[in-house]
Design a protein that fits this description.
Helix content: 55-70%
Number of strands: 2
Strand content: 5-15%
Distance between the termini: 61 Å
Number of domains: 1
């Protein structure tokens, strides 16, 4: 047995309990990492499509549309950092769908 600081309090934990906690944490972080990979892949596809729309707006000299698309691109870029897993179960993480910004007008 040893003591561990949990939520600001000292708690006695056995080596077996600590091993279980570490396995659960690694499994959880694996799920989060895989989910973020899928989010980034979707985001990257959307950014490529967005680039095509932006080039079209550039050719048409549509400054307002260029600015709108730049704002959408920033929203897309920020999505992985805005996801908060706290309080979510593994299943909720797997099923969670972020609110994607609209690319088309």
């Amino acid at each position: 047995m040893f003591t561990k600081l949990v939520d600001g309090k000292r708690v006695e934990v056995s080596l077996e309990e600590e091993a279980i906690i570490l396995v659960e944490q690694s499994t959880r972080s694996d799920i989060e990492a895989k989910y973020l990979d899928s989010i980034r892949l979707t985001r990257d596809i959307m950014l490529k499509n967005l680039d095509q729309c932006w080039i079209r707006a550039l050719r048409q000299k549509d400054i307002q549309e260029q600015q709108r698309l730049e704002a959408v691109a920033q929203e897309l870029a920020d999505i992985p950092q805005t996801i908060n897993y706290n309080g979510m179960t593994d299943e909720e993480i797997k099923e969670y769908k972020p609110e994607w910004p609209k690319v088309e007008k």
